[in-house]
Amino acid sequence: MLLNFTIGAEKRSVLLNGQRIFPVAPPPILIGAFQTPANLSAETMQKMVSPQMLDEFWNVGTQYGHFGLSYNYTIIRQESHGELLLLDITNVDILYGSTPGGKELKWPKQQMVQIRLRHEPGTDELKIHVIELVDRFDPAPYTNLPYGTSILRTIFRSTEWDYYGQQGTWTRKWHIISWTFGEFF
Q1: Looking at the predicted structure, is the pLDDT value of residue 55 above 70?
Q2: Distance separating alpha carbons of residues 27 and 13, to the nearest angstrom
Q3: Which of the 8 DSSP states describes residue 141?
Q4: Which of 20, 34, 99, 138 is the most exposed place for a label (fewest CB within 10 A)?
Q5: How does DSSP classify residue 2?
Q6: Which residues pair with 104 in a beta bridge?
Q7: Which residues have a Cβ under 8 Å from the Cβ of 90 and sit 6 or more positions away?
Q8: What's the rounded Cα separation, in Å, for the pair 130 and 134?
Q9: CA triple 74-127-129, angle to 5 deg
Q10: Is the distance from CB of 75 to CB of 152 less than 8 angstroms?
Q11: What is the mean pLDDT of residues 40-57?
Q12: Has residue 140 got a pLDDT over 60?
């Protein structure tokens, strides 16, 4: 899976494949990713990035599959050390087409992404300090952190959401009724 982490244009947010993941946007954050070979060369990557082939509005099609991601997302804020983001991709889902479905990622050696953020001295501008793959673990041990630490955890399953909201909720039903009524008039 190709995951592109960048700092937003305003220098105060982190984007994953063009979607804001920090500070946390209102749920759901539907994140998609392309499946690419593990040995993708820098030259091939540049050929994908320069025509903006990885952007959401690209609709010509590629040889790479595009999948929805389900994830557990944890933000740990420490006054003394900045922010730590943990992104654990739990499922890869085919959201549209004739054969929707997905695959749970539960291999014993499954890894997750850990990102350490720092603020530039004297400003609110963010900088990605380190991005690394770490062994999958439960962030629960972080609950015993020192004073001044806060934790926010999000669990998102992409197949439970669509354009109108989370499946089976009154909010989604209200959105469907509102959109249908609006289209009628």
Answers
A1: no
A2: 16
A3: G
A4: 99
A5: B
A6: 91
A7: 70, 71, 72, 104, 105, 157
A8: 12
A9: 70
A10: yes
A11: 72
A12: no
Closest alpha carbon to 68 in 98, 34, 45: 34
Q: Which residues contact 87 (CB under 8 A, 6 or more apart)?
A: 3, 16, 21, 71, 72, 73, 112, 113, 114, 115
Any residues with CB less than 8 A from the CB of 171 and at least 6 apart, and which?
165
Return the pLDDT at 107. 87
Structure tokens at 116: 């350490």
Q: How far is CA 1 from the centre of its chain?
A: 12
Contacts of 55 (CB under 8 A, 6+ apart): 18
CA distance 66 to 75: 26
24-34: average pLDDT: 73
Task: For residues 77-99, give the mean pLDDT.
Answer: 78
Distance CA 167, CA 160 (A): 5
Tell me the backbone φ, ψ of residue 157, rounded to 5 degrees.
Answer: -115, 110
Give tens-digit pLDDT for 143-160. 556 655 667 777 778 777
Q: Which residues contact 47 (CB under 8 A, 6 or more apart)?
A: none
Work out the pLDDT band at 115, boundaries 50, 70, 90. Answer: very high
